[in-house]
Amino acid sequence: MSEEVIKAEGLTKVFNKHLTVVDHVNFGVKHGEIFGFLGPNGAGKTTTINMLITIMKPTEGKASVLGFDIAKQDVNVRNVVGVVPQEYTADEDLTGLENVLLCADLYGIPRDVAKERAMELLKLVELTDFKDKRVQTFSGGMRRRLELACGLINRPKVLFLDEPTLGLDVQTRTATWDYIRKLKKEYGMTLFMTTHHLEEADALCDRVAIIDHGKIVVVGSPEELKHSLGGDLITLAIKENEDVSGLIQKVEHVKEVRKEDGGAYRIKAEIGEITTPFIIEALRKKGYTVTRLSLTEPTLNEVYLEYTGKSMRDAEESREATFSRRMTMRRARQ
Amino acid sequence: MSETNHNSKSRLHGIWALTNRELKKWYKEPVIFLLSIITPILWMGLLGKSMNISAVFNTGSLPLPQINPPLTLEQALQLKDYFAGLQSSIMQGAFSTTDYFSFMSVGMIAFTALFTTMFSGMSVVWDRRLGFLNKVLSTPVSRAVIISSKVLSATLRSMFQAGIIILIAVAFGLQFGPNFTILNILGVFAVIFLICVGLSSLFIAITIRSTRIETPMAVANLITLPMMFASNAFFPTKFMPDWLQTIAKFNPMTYTIDAVRQLLIFNTDYIQLAWDFLYVGIFATIVATIGIVLSWRFLSK
Questions:
Q1: ipTM score of the complex?
Q2: CA nearest B128 in A: which residue?
């Protein structure tokens, strides 16, 4: 099946009449894929999700989820999608199980079915041992997993994940990725996620849309996007003090050669791991000795840099700050 | 997870789940639960018993005036009887009951209802700040149900506390009116239900757009003070200046308190009681409607 599960056409959100947060975005999410929205803080990712899950009304444009119009059939949309929000939304005063059952009640799932599902989901996210503990005592990773369990209680066909690994340590993050992959593989779920982690988008998403200032800059699979940059980057230096640019240029698949000030050569080439031996071979034949060599595959950071003209890293700082402030407030409340 | 959802749902589904969530924060927390019972005991024990207004009019102990020619023993006894009777007729005239404690303990019920509903209104702000509201909004629960569950939990809590206060008041010596029956208690709960629905809708309407707790808190305080004191909660309105009487006449608290007094301690005036119910009922209906309309408008952005 390859019909589009989520479809957005000219989706726009304007706050206070002049602050355009999402600016005429168009995209389609195919059945059974993990679709990622990649962009810095304030790019409009969460607003897009909020419109798709019908918490916010779009100012302009339209979108549908599983064929239901988000503006006109909002209750239908809410019935068939699951949401794992960015913040921890579980009620701290209730236990893990009580929280999941509360979610089930909100979807109108009968109690007996709900109990069965809740236990199954708590097992999936490995919280069975903590089900009767209050959420207050949970760690960040456990809370995130609980959110995941809540988001899955209505057996959604489409799951929306807003920054699913925000604030988690590397280990927990990797574990969360495994859960997400499992959902796709075992349940054939379609997942729409936002992230500002380039590695995350690269590791998880089948297709990525890079969003900046409310606009989608480019859409494609991580491989395609990286490929579109013109291939891998090879850096090498030779012992001899001669310009061999012309020679390297003649090797098959080499796209661009630049000699740098230090005497090293920066070579852009498709399929770097195959091209590199040919370059060495070509140089050796002419009697040159390669002294130093490195091969880098482009990451999404380079892609991001290419399309938006700035690095992703700058944006991350403020997001983490907001997050830690929210946590402080939570603690202050107790 | 591929089968479709065949969940039987009514328009009201989720209301009990959300209400129970609020109530759990109260009854599963022993300290909060205990405090919510102890506080009215303290209020009534201290305020109710210290403001011993009937003692102010304890005319029976006044010495008889020395007049010429001296009173006969019979006349003196008659006069003493007259003075002794003055106390209860003054109390009866002012408070429509001879016991001030009975009078004010009913005011206390209204007082507790007011504050309980105020705090539950504030919980909308917490739900918004902590993200819980967003989660609920992303489920198929109706927006009106979200607000109704807040109203319902505040109301149930207030009704429980009202029951406790009545019990305590009886223990402290509340004097029931001449035509009090156990059925009147049901009437008391009915009117408390109405006022609490109205009050909690009012406070939720104030806080529904806020993301900060400070502003609605100040507004709520501004409202609760006149609601409490520009009413007949602790003192009859007939001794108030005209302008204050006018405010009290529009204050739904006045009608609530009067209804509870008619039912518990007064010689019941059924026509007045009907008016009280009507006024409080209309107040509740209007404010609850406003609350639900606002929830449609402002819960989604």
A1: 0.79
A2: A89
